[in-house]
Design goal:
The protein is built from ten helices and two strands, in the order ααααααααβααβ. The chain has about 190 residues and is an all-alpha fold. Helix 2 (about 30-45) runs antiparallel to helix 7 (about 90-110), helix 2 packs across helix 10 (about 160-170) and helix 9 (about 140-155) packs across helix 10 (about 160-170). The two termini are about 20 Å apart.
Length: about 190
């Protein structure tokens, strides 16, 4: 018998695997947090499945999301990314990724890690919501508003409150699995 899952992933094996293995699992690793930040940046205005299906292409194109390398990308690398059909070739998002890599390291220098910085917004503990139907989950919250505002102040791009809330969901800062989903109690 199939386990009960959140409604947003049903019917697509790729989506279901992501849901079952990653979505909502608390992430404290700076490398993986940066990967999700990049992916959420590119997701703006697009469906998440579009990004997930290109995730490996993004990984290769952006040097395995190595923010130290990305922060030093020369113009020639940026131009080559804009020709890469395996990723989303949006000039503003590609350039934002470079800008965000620089700002990411500045946060690490200030707080010791990006994880220490970002998790402090939720008192270092995932917020466990009680979502009955995934369609009723919020698109943003006062916390995502505060994170977005602070990141923008620090020079980040493409970090609006809705993008940040999706980042929070993906990285387990908030548990928005439906109450009847088998993952709700597991994460």
């Amino acid at each position: 018998m199939e386990p009960v899952r959140c409604g947003w992933c049903k019917g697509d094996t790729f989506y279901e695997a992501y849901h079952d293995q990653e979505w909502g699992v608390p992430v404290k690793d700076d490398d993986l947090l940066f990967e999700f930040l990049v992916l959420e940046t590119f997701q703006a205005g697009l469906s998440w499945i579009t990004i997930l299906k290109r995730r490996e292409n993004f990984r290769v194109a952006f040097d395995h999301f190595d923010y130290k390398k990305i922060a030093k990308y020369p113009e020639t690398k940026i131009l080559s990314l804009l020709q890469d059909e395996g990723i989303i070739r949006n000039k503003l998002k590609v350039r934002a990724t470079v800008t965000n890599a620089i700002a990411y390291m500045e946060i690490q220098n200030e707080f010791g890690s990006f994880s220490s910085y970002i998790w402090e917004f939720v008192n270092n503990k995932p917020i466990k919501n009680k979502v009955v139907d995934y369609k009723d989950a919020p698109a943003n919250t006062p916390i995502s508003d505060a994170i977005s505002k602070d990141l923008k102040k620090r020079g980040f791009k493409f970090v609006g409150s809705t993008i940040i809330y999706a980042f929070m969901q993906a990285t387990g800062m908030v548990n928005d699995h439906q109450l009847d989903c088998f993952r709700y109690t597991e994460v």
